[in-house]
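User: My instructor asked us to take a sequence, write out its structure as C-alpha cells, and then describe one feature of it. I'm not sure where to start. Here is the sequence I was given:
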Amino acid sequence: EIAVSGNPNLQNLLILTAIKADGTRVMDYINRLDHFDGPAVGEIAVGSELFEEAYFIYKKFDLHVPAIKVLLENLGSIERAHEYATKVEEKECWSELAKAQLAGGNIKDAITSYIRADDESNRDSVIAEAKKSDSYEDLVKYLKMVRSKVKEASVDTELAYAYAKIGELGHLEEFIVSTPGINLQSVGDRCFDEGIFEASKIIFTSLSNWGRLASTLVKLTQYQAAVDAARKANSSKTWKEVCFACVEQEEYRLAQLCGLSIIVNADDLEDVSEFYQGRGKNEELIALMEAGLGLERSHMGIFTELGILYAKYKLDKLMEHLKLFSNKINIPKLIRVCEEQMHWKALSFLYVQYDEYDNAANVMMNHSPEAWEHVAFKDVAVKVSNADLFYKAITFYLDEHPLLLCDLLAVLSSRIDHSRVVDVMRKREHLPLVKPYLLSVQQSNLVAVNEAVNDLLIEEHDFEGLRNSIETYDNFDQLQLATRIEKHDIMEFRRIATLIYKKSLRWKQSMQLSVDDKLYKDAMETAAQSGEPELAEELLKGFIADGNKECFAACLYTCYDLIKPDIALQLAWMNGMTDHAMPYMIQVMRDQTSKIDLLMAERAERKKEAEKTDDDSSNSQQSNMYAQMLPPALPSPMQYQQQQQAGMYNANGYNQQQQFQQ
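Assistant: Let's start with the prediction itself. The C-alpha cells for your sequence are:
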C-alpha cells in the first residue's frame, strides 16, 4: 500500500486490473486511491460498464460534465443528475441535464434547466417541444432568456405567439409596439387558425390588415366593428364573409350594409342571392336588392335579380317592376324564370319588350285567363311576323271573346287575307258576327267579301244596303246573285235582280222581270238603255196586247230614239191608239222640221262661203298681173346707207374691193 499510494502509475494499473479482473473491488480502490488518472480511468470504467464507479471517479476529480453525462446517459437517472447539477451549479451540467429532460419529454424541467444553464443553443428544439406539450408559459420564460442573448426575428415571433397562447394580451400589445421585426402576419394567422381571436384582433389591428381583422371580429361576434373593418378593407371576399355571418346571426341591418357593397359587383351578386335563398331569407334579400336600386353603381344584374325574386316570392310587385325597369333588366333571363314559375302575364309583357311578338301572342292565347288583355293583344297582333297567328287569333276570339272580334279585325285589316277570314267565318257559321268588319274592307272589292256582304244583306232583308253594295262594288258572281233573288218574296230584291241583269247586259231578262212585276217604268227604262229597237218594239206590242194605252204612250216617249215613227203610227192606227200616239207624232214632226230648218241654214251658209271664195280668187289674179309689169325694186334708203358704210358698193353699184384688186 505504501508503494502504491504515491505512485500514479501503479494506482492506474491497480484500478485497471481490478476493472478487468474483479469489478467489485474497483469502488474500494477509487475511494482509497487519490492519484490515478481520473479522466482516463473513468472513460475505461464507462467502457467496461462500471457506470457507478465511473460516476464516482468523475465526481472525485470534479469532472462534473462527464459525471452528469454518466448519470444521464449510462445510469439514466435524471433525478440524481438534477441533484448533482443543483449541487455543483455549473451551467454545462444544467445544459446536459436540460437536453436529457428535453429528450425525455419533460419540457417544463428542461426549460428550467436551460434557463439555469443560460443556454440558448438548442432553442429550436425547445420551442418545438414546448409547442407540442403546450407549455407556453414556460416557453415565455425561456424565450425571454434567449432574447437576452440573441436578437432574432424568429425568437421575437415565437415569443409574441407564446404571449398570445397564454392570454397575456397586455404584454403582447406592449411587446408588439416595442419590438420591430416580428412576423406579425404569421403570428396573427396562427392565432386565428387556433381560435385565439382576441390576440388576432390585436395583431391584425396593429398590422392594419382590415380583411383579417374583419374575419376575427366576426369570430368574436363583434359585427358592427367587423362591418367597419370590412369597409376599410373594401374587399369583396371580406364583405361577403361579414355579410354572411351577419345573416347567420340575424343581424339583417348590418348584413344589408355589407350586401350593398357586394351586389355592385355583378360577379358576386349571384353568391349573395344563393346564400340568402339557401337559408330562407327571402324577404331580407328582396329588401337588400330594393335598396341596391338606388345605388350610384347599380347595374342590370341588380334589377334582373330583383325581378327574379319578385317572380318567385312576391308576385304582386313583379309587373310594376317590369314596367318601370324594362330597359334595365336582362329580359331573356327573366323570361326563363317567368316561364318556370308560370307567370304568363309577366311573360307576355317581357316578350313584347324583347320584340318577340309571336311568342307574346301565343302566350296570351294559350294562357288567356291570366295573360290576355284586349288592348295589349291588339298592339301585339299587328306586329307578329307569322301570318298564321292572325287566323289563330281570329279562332281564339271566336271561342272566347266573340264580341271583340270585329275590333281585332279592324286592327289587322291591313295585314290579313280578307278572303281567308271570310272562309274561316263561313266554316264556323259566324259570318254575321263580323259584318262591320266586312263592310269596312269591302272597298277592296274582293269577290269573297262582296259575296259575304251580299249574303248577309239578303238574310237581313236589307234591300237598300244590297242595292248600294252591288252598285258600288261589282266584283262578285252577278248572275248567280241575280238568279238567287229574282224569285225573292220581296219585290225590291226582284228589282235588284233586274238591275243586276241590266249591269250584265241581259236586257231582255231584266225587262221581262220588270214586266212580270208590273214595274212598267223599270221595263221602259231597261228597253231604252239597251239601245235595241227590237226590244223596245216588243215592249210596245206587249202594252198594246194588254190594252195599256197609258203605258203605250209613255213607252213611245221613253224609247223615243229606238222606235221608228212609221212603226209607232202603224201600231197606233191599227189598235185604235192614235190619240195616245199623237203627242209622240207631234214630237216627231217637230224634230223633223227642226232638222230641215237646220239643213237649210247650213246650205245658205255654205253658199255664202262659196261666193266669198270666188271673189277672193278674182282679186288675187289681177294683183299678179300688175306686179309683172313693174321694174325691179330699188333698195331702201336705210339699206343703201348700210352698204355704203360696209364698203361693198360704189356709186355705180360696182364692188369697190374688186376695182382695187384690178
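For the description part of your assignment, you could build on this observation: The CA atoms of residues 216 and 222 lie 9 Å apart. Try explaining in your own words what that tells you about the chain.
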